[in-house]
Amino acid sequence: MISVTEISKKTNFSKEDIIRLLSITDKNEQKELLRKAYSVKDKTVGRKVYLRGLIEFSNLCQKNCLYCGIRSANAKVTRYSLTDEEILAVTEFAVKNQFTGIVLQSGEQSNRDFTQRITNLITRIKQATHHELRITLSVGEQSFNTYKEWFEAGAERYLLRIETSSEELYRKIHPDNALHSFKTRLQCLENIQQIGYQTGTGVMIGLPFQTIENLADDLLFIKQMNIDMVGMGPYLEHVNTPFFIYKDSLLPINERLNLSLRMIAILRLLMPDINIVATTALQTITPMGREMGLKAGANVVMPNLTPGKYRGNYLLYDNKPCIDEDADECINCLANRMKMIGEEIANDYGDSIHFTQRKNRVVM
Ligand code: 5AD
Ligand code: SF4
Ligand code: FES
């Protein structure tokens, strides 16, 4: 069998190579893979962490994904929506704390009131912060024109996880109706990219029915789509979802963590110049999860800036951390943690290098 050392020397991996790396069980091999990915990160995007302040501004959602805690059929969730003023207060806080970017995230809504409101919000945030904050949107599937309207209003980045690149698996993890179509999701991602956003996607790792081959395909999908930013993390169960019945057949939690770290590491080797998030889901498995993600090749962290009183209502999965903390506490905590692992918090925008180069090539 080909060794990890041999594979990680290559610049182009076959699907078999990726499967081999994803299947690592030996501790030393895992260490070697992660170390290699970290050194590639060091040489390309640097030993720096970019912070994006996450504002979970509403948990209203029209969808019913079978794995997600805030799916529309979960009547146990207290639904909320921050006012524009509350959102603006968070962005002001973000600027004061030297953030260069925020992420506006919510469940999915597609009515005109919602889309119009986002357009106005983008304009107001840009004005109020003197165009000092980059805005990432993460508000699901929308029409081409809506994505365009938001881009023109000033949003620079968009995150839409494909969740899985396998249409077959996608069907198994979503209800079978037009609101949950793999083809529509893919089309949305293509539209986002075509409009000119820095384009982010990602997948869940360790889903029921998911195979290692699915995950290898996910990595190849991300590469082939020329994605600029990736957020991917372990699937975690939520008690009030249909998928809770699979809780005993999932990969053990530590293996899910290690598999997620290998996904990050392999992606860093495949795409050295993209931005990769060390997700909150990693931190849910273990308090040091995000730091482990950074050590495996990730370079972005999204500290939660959602006002404390709403945090307990944005639970996509069980045991989400920091729901009793406030933004101040998380920022201090994070600063200490980054120092501890020898990573510097960057103060520039940290646009995806991959995006900048992709754009320059198109212009030339
Ligand atoms: N476990 C892990 N991630 C989840 N997400 C939704 N539900 C879960 C879960 N149970 C992720 C999806 C979605 C993102 C906002 O959160 O990938 O795109
Ligand atoms: Fe809604 Fe996103 Fe949860 Fe699906 S994963 S139910 S779209 S918030
Ligand atoms: Fe929230 Fe540590 S990141 S308390």
Helix-strand pattern: HHHEEHEHEHEHHEEHEEHEHHEHHEH
Output the number of helix runs. 15
CATH-defined architecture: Alpha-Beta Barrel
Overall mean pLDDT score?
Answer: 96
* Class from helix and strand fractions: alpha/beta
N→C terminal distance: 44 Å
Weakly predicted, low-confidence segments: none
Number of strands: 12
CATH C-level name? Alpha Beta
Shape: globular
Q: Write the CATH fold name.
A: TIM Barrel
Topology of this structure?
Blueprint: H1 4-9, H2 15-22, H3 27-44, E1 48-51, E2 53-58, H4 84-96, E3 101-106, H5 112-128, E4 134-138, H6 144-153, E5 157-159, H7 167-173, H8 182-195, E6 198-201, E7 204-205, H9 212-224, E8 229-231, E9 233-234, H10 253-270, E10 275-277, H11 280-285, H12 289-295, E11 300-301, H13 308-311, H14 327-340, E12 344-345, H15 353-363
Parallel strand pairs: 1-11, 1-12, 2-3, 3-4, 4-5, 5-6, 6-8, 7-9, 8-10
Describe this protein's structure.
With 364 residues, this protein is of the alpha/beta class. It has one domain (47-363): Aldolase class I (TIM Barrel), CATH 3.20.20.70. Helices cover 46% and strands 12% of the residues. The chain has helices spanning 4-9, 15-22, 27-44, 84-96, 112-128, 144-153, 167-173, 182-195, 212-224, 253-270, 280-285, 289-295, 308-311, 327-340, 353-363; strands at 48-51, 53-58, 101-106, 134-138, 157-159, 198-201, 204-205, 229-231, 233-234, 275-277, 300-301, 344-345. It has a seven-stranded parallel beta sheet with strand order 2-3-4-5-6-8-10. Strands 11-1-12 form a three-stranded parallel beta sheet, covered by helices on one side. Strand 3, helix 5 (112-128) and strand 4 form a beta-alpha-beta unit. The chain binds 5'-deoxyadenosine, iron/sulfur cluster and FE2/S2 (inorganic) cluster. The site of 5'-deoxyadenosine has 11 residues, from loops.
